[in-house]
Specification:
Elements: E1 6-9, H1 13-24, E2 33-36, H2 42-49, E3 53-54, E4 66-69, H3 76-83, E5 92-95, H4 102-108, E6 114-119, E7 128-133, H5 137-147, E8 151-155, H6 162-170, H7 172-189, H8 194-214, H9 219-225, H10 232-240, H11 246-264
Parallel strand pairs: 1-2, 1-4, 2-3, 4-5, 5-6, 7-8
Antiparallel strand pairs: 6-7
Helix pairs in contact: 6-11, 7-8
The structure holds NADP nicotinamide-adenine-dinucleotide phosphate.
Length: 265
């Protein structure tokens, strides 16, 4: 299955991160990238200097084997209407537009094969997570091949689960940053300076994530390893894992994100 050239309809924050990540990983050559972007940022300009075709004539679009739809959800229909007539009949569409369903995408792109992917912003550093859904296993495989160099790929068994995956992983980096903020604020309340508290919170989360990445153990096992019975961590966890602690709070937060995705969809 030939994946390249890869056309990006929209190379803003996410589209540019994916395109740059693919080139950086050596998965796609820069001159196999075609980028349609009205306001190219520095990453896109750098790719163009390395040979990516930026805003070429419409006749070039028919060369694309894979088309990544990476515009804001509210403009996807207009973009599909503009570009679909210029694509090859068998080009594969990979959409990262939150909440836009494959049946609607398939219709708007003239029945071309479609896959949906929900990536996290860490694709920019090759440490993303990408939830994937496609009805056809070949489209799923194509989306997996595109994102595997940049992300830990998770296959979803049902398109309806895309909202839940988005609520856990797409929005997840924000939860972790909020945790760091809350740890820093708690450190200040316990008497640390704002600078020391912020440094400690940030570096602790980075270190814990790095250990978790290296370890085959579950997060639960890692937590137990650093919690001596009757010690200080155990005292904190009694609060954090109590009846009104992190568990119910996170469940409510993820449910709110899912509900919002349904409203937007
Ligand atoms: N950011 C994330 O964390 C994240 C995570 C997962 C999925 N997503 C999805 O990724 C998609 C893009 O999000 P984003 O954050 O990357 O938004 P963004 O930075 O606004 O990127 C969209 C880009 O598309 C460009 N565009 C507008 N009209 C166009 C047209 N007619 N043809 C081609 N390009 C056009 C926009 O240009 P202008 O500057 O002119 O508007 C913009 O640069 C969204 O659907 C979102 O749901 C984002």
């Amino acid at each position: 299955m030939t994946m390249t050239p890869v056309l990006f309809l929209g190379a803003g924050r996410m589209g540019a991160a994916i395109a740059a990540g693919l080139a950086e990983a050596g998965a796609v050559r820069a001159d196999d990238l075609i980028l349609i972007e009205p306001h190219p940022g520095p990453d896109v300009a750098a790719l163009a200097r390395r040979g990516a075709r930026l805003n070429p004539g419409r006749d070039v679009l028919a060369q694309a084997r894979t088309v990544v739809l990476a515009v804001k959800p509210q403009m996807w229909r207009a973009v599909a209407e503009t570009y679909a007539p210029h694509l090859a009949a068998d080009a594969r569409i990979v959409s990262i537009a939150a909440g836009v369903r494959t049946d609607a995408l398939g219709k708007a792109f003239g029945g071309r094969p479609v896959a949906r992917v929900m990536p996290t912003t860490a694709v920019a550093v090759g440490k993303g997570v990408a939830s994937i859904w496609a009805a056809d296993p070949r489209d799923r495989a194509a989306a997996r091949a595109l994102f595997a160099p940049l992300a830990h790929v998770v296959d979803l068994p049902d398109e309806d689960l895309m909202d839940a995956a988005t609520a856990v992983s797409g929005s997840g980096p924000a939860y972790v940053y909020a945790l760091v903020e809350a740890m820093a604020e708690a450190g200040v309340a316990a008497g640390l300076s704002a600078t020391a508290a912020a440094e400690l919170a940030r570096a602790t989360v980075i270190g814990a994530a790095a250990l978790m990445e290296k370890s085959p153990e579950t997060p639960e096992a890692l937590r137990i390893q650093v919690t001596s019975p009757g010690g200080t961590t155990a005292a904190a966890l009694q609060v954090l894992q109590g009846e009104t602690g992190l568990g119910p709070l996170m469940t409510a937060a993820v449910a709110a994100a899912v509900a919002r995705a349904r409203e937007l969809g």
